[in-house]
Amino acid sequence: MLRIILSITLAVLIWFRFLKPMNHFTKMGVKQTKPWPILGDIWRNLFQQMNSLESVEFYYKMFPGARYSGFYQFSIPTLIIKDSELLKQITVRDFHHFTDHRTFVDADVDPLWAGNLFALTGQTWKEMRATLSGSFTSSKMKNMVHYMNGAAENFVKFFLNKNEKLIDIDMKDAFKRFTNDVISTTTFGMCGFSQISKQRYLFNGKAKHRLFFSVQTFAVFRNADDA
């Protein structure tokens, strides 16, 4: 008798904890995927049928024409927003209802990650968002695109000037240099040609934890606000 009671109790707990949440969006009239019990829609990643980017694209395109749809990260309902106006409403007009990011690691376990922009929550995130919003207005972002394009053109020209049919490239090193150029020109208004010389790094190898500026590091100095 005790085994029967325990079995029923366990079955009820499994239903409410792992199975019932899988119908969350259906009950609300929102189109959703067909998740697996317990695993939700993450099973494609767990069984290596798709990587993370492929799975996000897959679920995004699952319901063409829908403004939003739902899928499940294990038993956690996750809403995919596709409509630009709805996205603007959530992130701007109704932002006070959506202030928190999802917590992946507790701040006591990894305080460095907890201070990451995408891990902030509550009042801390609201204050940081207010601080950063002024740096990412539409006009400033348009100016950034100009400098990003310049860094990309320098990146391409560097390899075209080699005039070789086959070029051996360390991709990690090449894109690290390109990233440094983009950051230096958009953030500090300085154009660095780090592809040309290994000595021209925003972050020098001998001082990995210290930001420094020198004439040797940057070939051209520009003020981003003058664009």
From TrEMBL:
Q: Name one Pfam family in it.
A: p450
Membrane topology designation: Peripheral membrane protein
Give start-end of the signal peptide. Answer: none
Kindly list the GO CC terms recorded for this protein. endoplasmic reticulum membrane
Q: Show the InterPro entries listed in the entry.
A: Cyt_P450, Cyt_P450_E_grp-II, Cyt_P450_sf, Insect_CytP450_Detox
Which UniProt keywords are given for this protein, alphabetically ordered? Answer: Endoplasmic reticulum, Heme, Iron, Membrane, Metal-binding, Microsome, Monooxygenase, Oxidoreductase
Q: Which domain of life is it from?
A: Eukaryota
Q: Which cofactor does it need?
A: heme
Q: Where in the cell is it found?
A: Endoplasmic reticulum membrane; Microsome membrane
Q: Extract the GO molecular function terms from the UniProt entry.
A: heme binding; iron ion binding; monooxygenase activity; oxidoreductase activity, acting on paired donors, with incorporation or reduction of molecular oxygen
* Entry's family note: Belongs to the cytochrome P450 family.
Q: PANTHER family attached here?
A: CYP9F3-RELATED, CYTOCHROME P450
Name of the molecule in the record: Uncharacterized protein
Organism the protein comes from: Dendroctonus ponderosae
Taxonomy, top ranks, is: Eukaryota, Metazoa, Ecdysozoa, Arthropoda, Hexapoda
